[in-house]
Amino acid sequence: MTPQQKKIRKLLREKQGILLVHYYARPEIQEIADVLGDSLALARAAAESDAKVIVFAGVHFMAQSAAILSPEKTVLLPRLDAGCPLADTATVESVRLMREKEPEALFVTYINSSAEVKALSDVCCTSSNALQIVKNQPAAKKIVMLPDGNLARHASSVTGREVIAWEGCCPVHQALTPQEVIAVKREFPDAPFVAHPECRSDVLALADFVGSTSAILKFARESNARTIVIGTEAGILDKLRKDSPDKKFVLASEALLCADMKKITLDDIEKSLITMQPAVTVSREISDAAKKALDRMLSLSS
């Protein structure tokens, strides 16, 4: 570890804190994580940890979820401007209008959403458990799935359930085109192409495997392939290479880079632990309603 990484680990011990880090964060931050994972793993860690302070190296909605699940803890997000354009596509007003239009529907909301939108939802999901959550909804009920339309359409095609898809998208995954995938597959004809379900339907149609970041990592560890083409954010490459140093991982497009996920630096984390700012809080009214949707998600996830 570098001197700064050691200092951060020392500050975490002194503050009785833990560092939760998403796979898309900077590699030097991934190296010192207490928990490195996808949104589902990090949500579970936030709910189950006995730490007094949670430092999140991710984006705003993740820190909000931690604050909702663990209201007695101090939740720090070193950069409050680390946002999520996908989450921004579903506003409170637009979701309320949809609820008025579909009053009998169950609203399944991707964890990539604001606390206020989660509070208007029936159950949350992540890319790891979206199929399971959709399958577990009563068969007679119509499902509205938001805010990621690509994930919603994927869940519908796999489960056979009719799903009304919100027309939001992750601009990073949406940027990956079939033409780019075809070009990479032509260069590496024996390499399987694995894709995140936030990718476009025409990209997923080319995939040998579709799954969340944690599922992609598992596929890569277990695959006999020597080269694998990766269709998700570039930050996952560090973990892939550590897990499988004997394999080659090729990013399907240079566009697969999330600027928001890269905003938080070691400097930001160090400053945040010293000042105990910025802290992310959610009002009791919003938190209580949103927690019900998150708790339902966790109870339905194996």
Would you mind describing this structure in some detail?
The longest helix has 17 residues, at 284-300. Helix 11 links the parallel strand 9 and strand 10. This protein has 302 residues and is of the alpha/beta class. The protein is built from 15 helices and twelve strands. Strands 2-1-3-4 form a four-stranded parallel β-sheet, sandwiched between helices. The protein has a four-stranded parallel β-sheet with strand order 6-5-7-8. Strands 10-9-11-12 form a four-stranded parallel β-sheet, sandwiched between helices. The mean pLDDT is 95. It starts with a helix and ends with a helix.
Concise account of the structure shown:
The protein is of the alpha/beta class. Helix content is 43%, strand content 15%. The strands form three sheets. It has a four-stranded parallel β-sheet with strand order 2-1-3-4, with helices on both faces. Strands 6-5-7-8 form a four-stranded parallel β-sheet. Strands 10-9-11-12 form a four-stranded parallel β-sheet, sandwiched between helices.
